[in-house]
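Incident review: delayed structure delivery

Summary: a single-chain prediction request sat in the queue longer than the usual turnaround. Root cause was a stuck worker, restarted by the on-call engineer. No data loss occurred. The affected request and its eventual output are reproduced below so the record is complete for anyone auditing the incident later.

Affected input:
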Amino acid sequence: MTNKYPLKKPYETNELVGHLEVQQQLYRLYKSGLTRNSIILRGLKGIGKATLAFKFAFYLQQNSVENKNNVNFEPFNNMDFSRDIDLLLSGSHPNVMHVHPYMFEEDNLRGDIKVDHIRWLKSKITGTISNKYMRVCVIDSICNANTSACNALLKMIEEPPINTMFILINHSGDAVIQTIKSRCMVINVDNLDIDDIEKITKKTIEDFDINKFINLIKYKISPGIIINLLENNVFEIRDELNDILNNMPYNNINNIINISNNLSKKINEDRFFISIELLFLWVNKKVHSLIDLDVNRLIVYKWTDCWSENSIKYKALQDLNLNKEHFILNLLQDVNELMQINLK
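Output delivered after worker restart:
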């Protein structure tokens, strides 16, 4: 499928927007002599964590650890990484490796990092390094690594080759197995401010209006998330969902079953998760509107329970890859039953 809004690879640009505090933290790690060989960059998906990782990897190609006492801090944007970018784009960078789900299969439907990916990485970093600079392996993201890949990566982190650093990308809310996390320095990457989000997104979408998204999702907003929403026609999904909700309550359960079947199809996975996020936002707004109307508190409590209980189930659905059809069916049934109560 051709993307309507094609994004550059995270290492393909010389520009990095925001995250100055994290750049300073990484600089301090460099000045310490890179006492930790493994880092987790944790934050909201789509805010530029991988871009930040590659900028630091390129930084370490220009500044050897043995020369650290002669290096002062300067933002990564002030440096020219074009040579490293060209090498990585051509697949011939000797010191910087990028592990991601689609490096071997562009149509990797599961979107996971497999043990074969880690074996490839191991083959690349076996042996002595050919120059005085660090080898840096960016795992993008550790959340996508399956159990076998995590176990293989853990062995490499526990016994790393000399002058080798691992940077693991971790999206907020996604679990990292404790044995890996305990061996890494965790750096939290803050969300971008609204001006930076708009600046980055307008490089891809010239007529982008951020106010539409602030009103649409209220939270969890980043350039990467916005692009994914637009790729999946988020406003079309919103309108379809509103049609479903406006026609509730349904007396015939088959209507809800048909909706659930459509949303949970594998080909609609992104649309499924977007629909759930929008549905949760709708339920949240419903609770606040009922509070403002000063309705019976029991009704408010029922809606609140619906939101909290299904939020827990949603987290389990994501972490354990549970049945999406059962989840959406139960959620829509809960909402449908609550809509019937409101009519009484």
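Verification: The beta strands are 38-43, 96-99, 135-139, 164-171, 185-188.
Action items: add queue-age alerting; document worker restart procedure.
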